[in-house]
Amino acid sequence: MSIPSSTHRTLSVFLVSLVILLLLHCAFHAGSLRVPIQNVGDGAASAYQDKRPSSPAPSLGKLVSELYKPIKLPTTATNYTDPQGETYDNGGRTHWKKPMGHDIVIVDIDTRIPKGENGVFNPDKMDWTAVQSWGPGLLSVAHMNHFLYAQIHGYDYKYWHAQKMEGHGDSWIKLHVIRELLHKHRFVIFMDGDALIQHLQVPLEFLFNRWNISSGTSIAMPIDTQQIRDGEGNISLDSKGEVVLNAGVIMAQNLPHTHDMMRAWIECPTELRYPGCGRWKDTWSHEQRVFSEYIRYDYNPNGNNIVKIPCTEANGFPGIVGREGVIDDCKGEFIRHFTLEKYVAKTSMSDGIMQTLAELLQKNFAANHKQILVEEPPRAQSSKA
């Protein structure tokens, strides 16, 4: 019996998709991807050398991008509807009309390298069921999420192994790295090791339009979740009573004003310009508090140089309200930050990938239902004698 040509096409599409999924599986689990690891310190400028194309496996990136092509939201889309039916528009803005590709770099920064058992830098095969949602395991989960997202949309990705800064809390390390990468890219996107991208098919360009991150915006950060602690009151307010911005997600654009801002931010603890700033070198919340106490008041002359991303769109997670005194119901609609429930991150990542793959499979079923679906005719009713 001959097979219709349309069925051949269906089988071809399915087999190509299967091969791509197998390649993804092998690449991630066999540790075949090598991402450059860089050190940063006083000599960061000399330590970093950009090598284009910086994607660790360009062929993998093309395969992933092609796999997700049927469900990727166009940069110029006016709205996006999530799986629960909630629709988000672009705010009526079209700052970004074309994909920026390698002009955007997503960077993970840490003083640790997850290369132990089931770590992303471990050459042995990963056992996903045994990956933990804390410590190095959590880092691996977040880094894979960030890396996959970069591959889907053609962005660059870096994992920067940073050195500790004497006398400073570890979270200070990100600022030197962001400043250095801004010399090589138009946008630098940093996310904490417990922050995950929720909708893998939604590009940053769409989110930039939605959040009004324009060509004149230097830095965008989400509004923090407000938290009340006994004896301390609302710990999420600065000295002027304004809610702080959360430095667990930083989106910086390569502009002269941004470089001036980064310099002031990094040098703030020297107290040459800001008396009293030195206390935040090793007092929580370190560089995050410095930005909200000092920098945002001096470096936002146009009102859009610094963009405050809504808390519920790039911070928190479903169910955070009420936990440890949190009073804001920030659900992390686009970027979830699992500060208080890190063990949920692994499930969130799995759900995010499975959601996109389910959409791809569903589209294949729907588009090829005539070849896939076999309708058995109703059986004739037997008559009793």
Percent range for β-strand residues: 5-15%
CATH superfamily: Spore Coat Polysaccharide Biosynthesis Protein SpsA, Chain A
Question: What series of H and E elements makes up the topology?
Answer: HEHHEEEHEHEEHEEEEHHEHEHH
CATH topology title: Spore Coat Polysaccharide Biosynthesis Protein SpsA, Chain A
Give the count of helical stretches. Answer: 11
Straight-line N-to-C gap = 40 Å
Please count the beta strands (DSSP E, at least 2 residues each): 13
Spatial strand order of the main sheet: 1-5-4-6-11-8-12
Task: Kindly provide the name of the CATH class.
Answer: Alpha Beta
What integer value in Å does the Rg equal? 23 Å
Characterize the main sheet: 7 strands, mixed
CATH architecture: Alpha-Beta Complex
Estimate the mean pLDDT confidence. 86
Class of secondary structure makeup: alpha/beta
User: Can you tell me the overall shape?
Assistant: globular
Proportion of residues in helical segments: 25-40%
Q: Please tell me the total number of domains.
A: 1
Low-confidence stretches: 1-20, 22-43
